[in-house]
Q: What sequence folds into this?
């Protein structure tokens, strides 16, 4: 079974621009979660989608948004980029998001904001 | 905030067992203990999880104390490829708990 894929793997953007990252979950997985990882803050939860609905949300500003499509693929968008948004963005999928179902992570998208 | 406490770093000799401790003294009865690891520049990898009984899979063993206030992840024969940051996470039972709360983890260095 193919793992979680994320595109693009690397991205360089300028302050004020917006960016869209894509995640394809493992086939059959319906839950997709997004995380941000920075050296200072570590791994932080952004949001989770299940059946095209946002089910959980972390403590991030509204500039961070996401969506999930009917095939479970997900995108996250960051508008008005700031230098502090430079990070590794990780996507994880699981069968349902409920307990007992482990999350499988993709390789991440490395975003650099200049 | 993370509900777990782990040592910042540990060393282990290649071929020996690596025992990674985790304290979760405020764990509630319906919370599971999960372990993930992250090899440099890769996404975290699920290792194992458990509620109260000891668990074993092809990667590791998880020993949870009877009072559930602490646990130990055991890698029976550590290899250089096991060098990674290991995260111990507690997670609620049931419901739509899609998110994991990661702490700082333990940086395990396996040395030849």
A:
């Amino acid at each position: 079974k193919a793992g979680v894929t994320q595109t693009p793997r690397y991205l360089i953007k300028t302050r004020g621009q917006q960016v869209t990252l894509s995640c394809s979950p493992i086939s059959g997985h319906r839950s997709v979660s997004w995380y941000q990882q920075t050296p200072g803050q570590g791994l932080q939860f952004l949001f989770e989608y299940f059946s095209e609905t946002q089910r959980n949300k972390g403590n991030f500003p509204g500039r961070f948004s996401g969506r999930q499509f009917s095939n479970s693929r997900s995108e996250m968008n960051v508008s008005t980029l700031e230098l502090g948004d430079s990070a590794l963005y990780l996507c994880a999928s699981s069968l349902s998001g409920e307990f007992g179902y482990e999350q499988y992570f993709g390789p991440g998208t490395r975003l650099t904001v200049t | 905030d993370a509900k777990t406490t782990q040592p910042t770093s540990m060393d282990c000799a290649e071929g020996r067992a690596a025992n990674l401790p985790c304290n979760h003294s405020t764990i509630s009865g319906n919370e599971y203990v999960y372990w993930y690891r992250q090899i440099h520049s890769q996404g975290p990898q699920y290792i194992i999880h458990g509620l109260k009984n000891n668990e074993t899979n092809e990667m590791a063993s998880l020993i949870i104390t009877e009072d559930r206030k602490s646990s130990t992840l055991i890698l029976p024969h550590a290899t250089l490829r096991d060098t990674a940051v290991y995260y111990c996470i507690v997670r609620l039972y049931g419901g739509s708990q899609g998110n994991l709360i990661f702490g700082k983890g333990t940086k395990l260095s396996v040395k030849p």
User: Anything to note?
Assistant: The first strand of chain B starts at residue 9 and ends at 13. The interface with chain A takes residues 32, 34, 41-46, 49, 87, 91-104 of chain B (CB under 8 Å).
